[in-house]
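Dear Dr. H.,

I hope your travels went smoothly. While you were away I took the liberty of generating a structure for the chain from your last submission, since the lab meeting agenda had it listed for discussion. I wanted you to have the full record in hand beforehand rather than looking at slides cold. The sequence, exactly as received, is reproduced here:
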Amino acid sequence: MTSHSAPNSGPHRIVFANEKGGTGKSTTAVHVAIALAYQGARVAALDLDPRQRTLHRYLENRAETERRRAIDLPNARFEVFTGDTLAELEAQIAELSQNADFLIFDTPGRDDQFARHVATEADTLVTPLNDSFVDFDLIGQVDAETFKVRKLSFYAELIWEARKQRAMTTIKDSQSGGHRREMDWVVVRNRTQHTEARNMKRLDMALTELSKRVGFRIASGLSERVIYRELFPSGLTLLDKGQLGELGTSHLVARQELRALLAALKLPLPASPAPELALAAAT
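The corresponding predicted structure, in token form, is as follows:
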């Protein structure tokens, strides 16, 4: 594990962004936030969807469960953004970032200026996709006959340009003794088990081709499981093993998926997490 970046660099910004809903974005964001908290990291979370508020509601339910059961659970400091300007957003980010190791953003499943802004400022940009060409269209278009990538989407172009600008800024900052992280873009494939084999192979080829062109990494995410919907009212996660009662095999597999995803994100975790909080212990 690597240590945290220098304090003056601010918290590591993880942005969960996809302009399409129903990809497991909020579920993934919540579980990553709690997994980091279990590692002993100080986590803050900002929900940029004031209508749905899924991330905010999930963590709100978690705090209520803590009060109701008189227990202490690893959690994140969380807020929802309801402002109208980028200046208001940046002011809230600055306030929420204080003393945080990680700042997590959950964005709405639609084109949104605030989502675009935080995506281009991300240290780690996570784009969850279901394994379908409907979702793939968010980042690229394929030929109807060959399934070869024909062109990048507007979203992929936006991130590509943002990463180029970030790379230039990183070089300038390093020359002047400053610090600016390069953006790591990770496309996370959620809910893969329902995908037909031939379609999955075509998606594999298209994602691999596009990843080489625009520089994102590909990681396996969370499968579609009823347990995620069942946990929402309590705000619990698969890591809260002491609060979940008897777990079935599918739940244990899902927990392994989460551990694998966190490892794949390659986040700057605390150098020495407390043994009782280590994710590796949550088996």
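Two observations you may find useful: The beta strands are 12-16, 43-47, 77-80, 102-106, 124-130, 140-142, 149-152, 184-190, 217-220. The domain at 9-281 is CATH 3.40.50.300 (Rossmann fold).

With kind regards,
E. W.
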